[in-house]
Amino acid sequence: MNLEKEVILMDKRKVVIVTGGGKGIGYGVSEAFAEANYNIVITGRTTDTLNKAKKELEKKYKVDVLAVIADGRNEDEVKKVVNLTIEKFGSIDVLINNAQASKSGKMLVEHTDEDFDLAIYSGLYGTFHYMRECYPYLKESKGSVINFASGAGLFGKPGQSSYAASKEGIRGLTRVAATEWGPDNINVNIVCPLVMTEQLKAWKEEYPDVYEATIKGIPMGRFGDAKTDIGGVCLFLASPAASYISGETITLQGGSGLRP
Questions:
Q1: pTM for this prediction
Q2: Which residues are catalytic?
Q3: pLDDT tens figures, 180-194
């Protein structure tokens, strides 16, 4: 390798795709990767939200941000995200599947088929579509996949049936991918965060007693911070230090996610 080419490669920023990266946990994770000098691709369904996030990230962290309107339920839109990412940045090093819609706060017997489909298609199918389309590029970069699940599925939280079902499906998908993609040196893991989000606020209003019991059950006495607590762990899982960690579920819940 000649010196000029070596310098170019050393200067090349890594690239992360964060679905649902324009707000909430996804935005916090995007901030963590931007601070670590990654170029960022954020997706979502609301133009104003994505454009605002793009401007803020670029201004604050001096990185390039590609914002793409896309719904993970639609495989053609996912292919568009991947193609635009490769056109702009030339590679994909990390895929973070965070996007999820659901009827949180609605009891199981109150769910319609449409309610259930919303969670399964936005979460499970969205994760599947992004993983499948990003695979060739992750294989090339020996990259990382970080999928988001939830304590709602691990611990059976009330009012979260379709959400939990989607998240547990994502956990199964992740374990299979870790097995199939291990020979390609792609590590695939799950994080289950506990962060104050808009959905959690709605759940708090619907089930105040359960909310109070939840906060009392967190040994650290607080909900996590999207950037430092969640984004920091995602950065670790995408780093060389975590390259031998794969197929794992990591609960980021202040000590309340204890399990065998």
A1: 0.90
A2: 163
A3: 999 999 999 999 999
